[in-house]
Design brief:
It contains 18 helices and 3 strands. It is mainly alpha-helical. The C terminus is likely disordered.
Length: 473
């Protein structure tokens, strides 16, 4: 009882009093939070030493983080808390009735307090295990305090987006980070050292932007460099096209208004039924495995239990930040396109690629099933929502149980097939070596597509008040 009272009375962002916010109001808050996110991402941590931040480059894409800044934790604590709750509720160890208002409040409160716990826990782990080391004479708790403040800000910024803006904060922060990286990787004329690259001369460091790399390779008669640049650009375009096509696929169930004959709508069930959530959770799980492997490798000795765990379970990284053993090796996606260009594909690389694809697909299916059960997307919840809207399927008895049985024929197969498709597409995006991380690009396309649909629907309802009244009844 005490725990329930604590969870339901946690500090939170107050939601709007009106039932539906205006389009301009939602757009305003979405832009404010996005600008705040980018500003916080360029504020460096006070007292940070010479930490090797390059090792966290891949993690930053998935976690929507900017290591070395106040946003070093990113969405990691929120997603980790979601993963833990998904596993607990899906396995039946934690029984919460999500069909009731109190049950949903309890679940949301539990998720928030768990996210706060992971903020504190991850902040301590990053600093104490050497991921983010303080400078000489600076207390490590100064760094930990700044990381905790940044993590708490992310939690409340996510709430502001969910209640006052478009989409979800977690998704939006990933899309913002990946989009900025795609622009940099495609168009930046600077080198990795920050100096302006010489485009018209093959000497010196190459630019970061692949468009400039392609031009430089063509002018310098470098076919290998040109092929690498072309493959990265084409892979990015391919991921965009496939993701948009998969998002547009759906099954439409005809429904009619019981009181108004001759009028009806089509209830859409998307092929990718659970959208991008399963891929975010799987990618975050892989990111956490990589994180723990790096931290253990940096801090443990050569002998002992933790050393055995680091070497034989989580695995080790070489000096070039590439995994060489353990879970991190078999859940790492090699760049098959680049390896094919330089003719370096081996049977081990092919097996590693297959393992990565299998991990992404199985993980997406598991998290997709759990998400359907915990987010009110199951057949029973959807049938209740349809019936409460005064709709029914023509030719069938107006009964919630009948409607539930019909929806089960579609929802569970779509949950599985959509998860397999999105897991395979995410793995394929990573293996083809697209600009930025392939999974990040896939997530960004799906997030932006869904955001576009939500904005278009909101704008349509603001333009046509009669339609809004019909949808609210």
């Amino acid at each position: 009882m005490i725990l329930r009272n604590l969870l339901t009375n946690l500090p939170e962002v107050r939601g709007p009093l009106q039932k539906r916010l205006a389009f301009k109001e939602k757009l305003k808050w979405t832009l404010i939070i996005l600008i705040a996110f980018f500003v916080l991402s360029i504020i460096p941590l006070y007292g940070l030493g010479d930490a090797p931040l390059a090792q966290f480059e891949q993690l930053s894409i998935i976690l929507g983080a900017q290591f070395g800044s106040l946003m070093s934790l990113g969405i990691g604590p929120i997603v980790t808390a979601s993963i833990v709750l998904q596993l607990l509720t899906g396995s039946g160890l934690l029984k919460i009735d999500l069909t009731t208002h109190d049950g949903r409040l309890f679940f949301q409160g539990l998720q928030k307090i768990l996210a706060i716990f992971f903020v504190i826990f991850e902040a301590i782990v990053y600093v104490k295990m050497g991921g983010l080391q303080p400078a000489a004479g600076i207390s490590p708790w100064i760094l930990i305090g700044q990381l905790i403040v940044g993590g708490i800000l992310i939690i409340f910024m996510d709430e502001v987006i969910s209640k006052w803006g478009f989409g979800q904060g977690v998704s939006l922060f990933i899309a913002a980070g990946v989009s900025s990286q795609i622009v940099i990787r495609a168009l930046s004329p600077l080198t990795t050292a920050g100096s302006l690259a010489s485009i018209f001369s093959p000497k010196g460091d190459a630019p970061v932007g692949m468009i400039w790399v392609l031009a430089r390779s063509v002018l310098g008669a470098d076919p290998t460099g040109a092929l690498r640049a072309i493959s990265a650009i084409l892979a990015t375009v391919l991921v965009f096209v496939l993701a948009v096509y998969a998002q547009a696929m759906k099954v439409e169930i005809p429904l009619s208004f019981g009181r108004i004959r001759g009028h009806g709508i089509r209830w859409p069930l998307r092929f990718i039924y659970t959208s991008n959530i399963p891929v975010i959770l799987v990618a975050a799980l892989i990111a956490n495995i990589q994180l723990w492997a790096r931290l253990l490798q940096n801090r443990v000795a050569e002998s002992g239990f933790l050393a055995w765990v680091s070497q034989h379970i989580f695995g080790q990284f070489a000096g070039n930040n590439l995994p060489i053993s353990g879970l991190v090796y078999w859940t790492y996606s090699p760049n098959l396109a680049e390896l094919a260009i330089v003719r370096a594909i081996t049977p081990t690389v092919l097996l590693q690629s297959f393992t990565y694809i299998l991990f992404m697909i199985v993980g997406a299916v598991i998290f997709s099933i759990f998400w359907v059960q915990t987010s009110g997307m199951d057949a029973r919840s959807q049938a209740h929502q349809i019936m409460s809207s005064g709709l029914s399927i023509p030719g069938f008895r107006r009964d919630e149980r009948v409607l539930e049985r019909i929806l089960k024929r579609y929802i569970f197969p779509l949950t599985i097939m959509g998860a397999i498709a999105v897991g395979f597409l995410a793995a394929l995006a990573d293996l083809t070596g697209a600009l930025s991380r392939g999974t990040g690009i896939l997530l960004t396309v799906m997030i932006v597509y869904k955001l576009y649909e939500e904005i278009a629907q909101q704008h349509m309802m603001d333009m046509h008040p009669a339609l809004r009244k019909m949808m609210e009844t």
